[in-house]
Batch of 3 targets.
Target 1
Amino acid sequence: MGFGRIVRRPIVRQIWRELTAPKGERGRFEEIGIEIDPRTGQRHERLGGFQIFERLLSDPELLDQETHTYILPLRQRKHLIVGAMGGSSLPMKTYLEAFADLLPGRQPSWHLLDSTNPAILDAFWQELTSRIDPSEEERRQALEASTFVFVSKSGTTVETLSHFDYIVSQYGEFHIDPTTHIILLTDPDSGFEKEPQYAAYPKVPIQVDREKDIGGRFTPPGTRASLWLLGLLIGQELRPTFEAARAMHVYEDAADDPWLFSGVRLAELARRGRDLITY
């Protein structure tokens, strides 16, 4: 059966309606997207991204507030460095590739810390200072001109904490207050929120709506790790951009919906034994 015919089947449309329904109204798919923490046994919802356009557009002032409170201040520094692993790093990776032709010459410049390999850290300093072997003064100037955003839902991601400790030590080496250069993006009640060594650092919820139901590779565009980058690219146009994106998901005939078509295709590939499918 062709993919187009599969998409037209009522069961496919029913599945989509249930998956995108609010929590508690998903019928047989209520357990889809639930992660269970192996340490605590706690259940975590991870399908909030399906309702993200409605959430972001429901409050007419929400995106404007985000722009003025966070995005515009990020423009005041020369460099923006995101320290993140796994799904939290995907927005930066995706945008660095997708918008590579738009980024040169912009302020802030974008950089990603997603490896603890010493060679990667050396390359990071070269990238930040435009010097193969930067002097101490060049490193100091780069730190003064930088904002670091460390992203961890749990606040316990080992690699991200390692990056945090390293950057704090670099600021300490030059007697610069790191709390004015570091932002922690995390979930409420995370390790970043609870542990005393992070008390002085500004902490901002990963999700704009302060929920905890978007995670991993489903982060864009519903988390600040994605939203801030988009805001830096398109400025005041966040709302019309999201309105246009939401309109792209509305199709009278499900067979015309490219997103649903892609989902069916991925499901069929998985049924045939293909795995490790991601974006």
Target 2
Amino acid sequence: MAQAQALAREGNRVLLAEMGQGDYLARLLGWERIPYEPRHSPFQPNLHICAWTGDACLKEYLLMKLKLTSLYKAIFENRFAKAFLDVAPGLWELAVLGKFTSGIRGVAADLPYDYIILDAYSTGQATNLLRVPLAMTEFVRGGAMYDQSQAIHRALTDRSHCRFLIVTLPEVTPLRETKDFIESLQSVEITQPYLAVNRLFQPPGTDQDLKVAAREWTDEKRAAVEYLQQVMEFQRRALNTNSVTLAESTRHLPELFCLQPDLLARQLSHYLMGWVKWT
């Protein structure tokens, strides 16, 4: 959300699509559900929000190809076809990636946005997601599905069209998982993603400033400062011992003590403006 707001604040038309039912964005925005068709964001007039599920993306693609809704229903909404689609490996994920890259590949009308951000899975699932197009080419070996899968993979790995932004935390386990994830991306020809390290404690002043100020504080305030200093030292050690060297650029985002999701996203967007070179 913060990256989408950053691009929108720069005057771009932006679509933010969450992969799946849109549960995260629904909680963030206070909406009952996130629709498949883009809806205006309450934050920026040029920012739209949607959620892309595999079945909805596949339905849109097939209706575009078959032309007739009745034919689609006859083929794909009977129980035998649905059972096959539910177990077909990677088909739903391929449908979403196909929707995401459809304008680049020229298989559908280009969406009227300068940038489309796909909020995808966490690192473990994302690796499998990005392997789907290549895996599908090995599975089908020819035909339209093979051609489309190859084209999707080419679009995802074309740095003139697509960039990857990974968000992690300044803790040992998330940083190690992030390093492994970035290394695994090389197996699908994706290199030099951008990396944002979120929720880094950055109090005003230096550690020495805090120690001097703490002399005049109550025991409760002093204990709180000591705890924050321990957290900062933990984060520093985690970053120093788990440095990520394969990222094109790394940016540290501060811990912001804000309970309003819309305000939090807007404040974070300030740190992201002008950072990622998308083209």
Target 3
Amino acid sequence: MIILRNITASVLANITVRVISFVTSLLLIRYLGTVGLGVYTTVLVFVGIFSTLSDFGLTTLMTREISKCRENPYKSSIYIGNFIILRIFLSCIALFLMIIMANYLNYSSLIKTGIYLLGIASIFGVIRGVYNVALNGYEEIHISSFLSVIYSLCSSLVVIIFIIFKMSVESLFFLIFFETFITSTIAGLIGVRYTTIPRFYLEKENLIGLLRNAVPFALLVVLNTIYFRIDVIMLSKMKGVEDVGIYSGGYKFIDFFLLLVCSIGGSFYPRLSFLFSKSPE
């Protein structure tokens, strides 16, 4: 029943988020035009690629580890605390690399401003990501699915405000910055309610062990992200942001139908990890 509930909640939330995102994308495409959309997409993809470095495969690893020890609140709180510390540390490194690479590629001041703002926002977003993992590990996927819909609605509200007040692309990046801060606060409050309060007890061996075990997952996530998203970065330098806007506008239709199967697979993963910890056979 738990798996069925999780699959149902995950699939419904995924479809809802996809529909909201699709409609929001159409509004943005019409309002921004090809150049504005190209700038917006370039920033999002650029930050997204480096965000996978800050994740370092820890999301998948921690889902497994928290699933195994969720019946031990103290141990799971230690894991969550260490996860937060590692993610913030790696996010700071990723932000530093973003700044260096954005200047090396000689992007316009508008694109660099967007990269800096969303790069800093990704550090706030660590809390959102951590408690999404914790909720999945506790098999409270219906809660994390509900939160994903809330995040999507908040993002849509940002776009609506942006369009109604006829703001600039730079203002859109500031709105996303504040939206990330607000949704991360919501995720932290709800996450603590349904999982546990993190304990920031540093264990050097544990941190090193987590990083070592995360390497295979990190390679999978980083290579997968580069494979699917490097095209936008290449196009932005080879042709320009206007062509990125045309390309990404068409890609939105493909993206709408993408990754639905992941919502099903993600529902099984915590349960399988938990059962394996109980009986490896």
